[in-house]
Amino acid sequence: GRTAVVIPAAGRGVRLGHGAPKALRLLGGTPMLVHAVRAVARARTVSQVVVVAPSDAAAAVRTLLDEHPLPGSAGSTDVTVVPGGATRQESVALGLAALTGDIDVVLVHDAARPLVPVETVEAVAAAVRAGAPAVVPALPVADTVKRIAPGVPPGEPEPVTDTPERALLRAVQTPQGFDRAVLLKAHERAAGAPGEGEGATDDAGLVERLGVPVVLVPGHEEAFKVTRPLDLVLAEAVLARRRA
Ligand code: CTP
Ligand code: MG
């Protein structure tokens, strides 16, 4: 079988601000999405990339990717563009529907993590190939994390309910890697379960609900998510350091 990567890129980027879809924001003069596609296509094992574009910009994203062809051997990677949904979960499900027949391992990678090193992509794919049904790159948490009571209005002081032991917490990244059938089943199950609000914030969470084991492998600092304006400052600095 072969390995595909679904890249959810349909978000608005509300926390980053600025109006334009986050995946199209420039990083070192090149759209963040192009960096993300290059980063995963650099992995030898990846034969198909499905980009999930904002639903009103799928044609523009197709044009953009055609204007930025993949270099070298990655040039043989098949890049598909499909329109996304209202939540990340829906967008990933729409991407999964565009996979071709002989794919048996699927990675899901946020367009908002444009600087993930290829070694992280390869390590996740290899762990799935070695038999793990769900593999997630993760790092220890630097900040202490508090849990709060639900339903506190914005602006009100938030009552703390407890403090999970930091040493037992991990911050998870993408690409998250899966046995294709397991990920499909997880998304089918989740789509049938109402009341999930914004949808799941990661795919492994849906697989956990099936009772399928999820394992962590080491993530990478440079796989951080561009979420707020300061993250863009960091991303520019990382890129400048690489080019130096
Ligand atoms: N995503 C998506 N479809 C959505 C929402 C999010 O494909 N309806 C994608 C984003 O494009 C991003 C990834 O999921 O690559 C992670 O989401 P996040 O960082 O939250 O991005 P946004 O949802 O765009 O940002 P925000 O939550 O600040 O609006
Ligand atoms: Mg979001």
From TrEMBL:
Catalytic activities: 2-C-methyl-D-erythritol 4-phosphate + CTP + H(+) = 4-CDP-2-C-methyl-D-erythritol + diphosphate
Site for Transition state stabilizer, residues: 15, 22
Name of the gene: ispD
TM regions (residue ranges): none
GO biological process, one term: isopentenyl diphosphate biosynthetic process, methylerythritol 4-phosphate pathway
Gene3D superfamilies assigned: Spore Coat Polysaccharide Biosynthesis Protein SpsA, Chain A
Function per UniProt: Catalyzes the formation of 4-diphosphocytidyl-2-C-methyl-D-erythritol from CTP and 2-C-methyl-D-erythritol 4-phosphate (MEP).
Domain of life: Bacteria
GO molecular function, one term: 2-C-methyl-D-erythritol 4-phosphate cytidylyltransferase activity
InterPro entries tied to this protein: IspD, IspD/TarI, IspD/TarI_cytidylyltransf_bact, ISPD_synthase_CS, Nucleotide-diphossugar_trans
EC number: 2.7.7.60
EC class: transferase
Keyword annotations: Isoprene biosynthesis, Nucleotidyltransferase, Transferase
Site positions (Positions MEP for the nucleophilic attack): 166, 225
Organism: Streptomyces carminius
Protein name in UniProt: 2-C-methyl-D-erythritol 4-phosphate cytidylyltransferase
This protein's record includes keyword Nucleotidyltransferase: yes
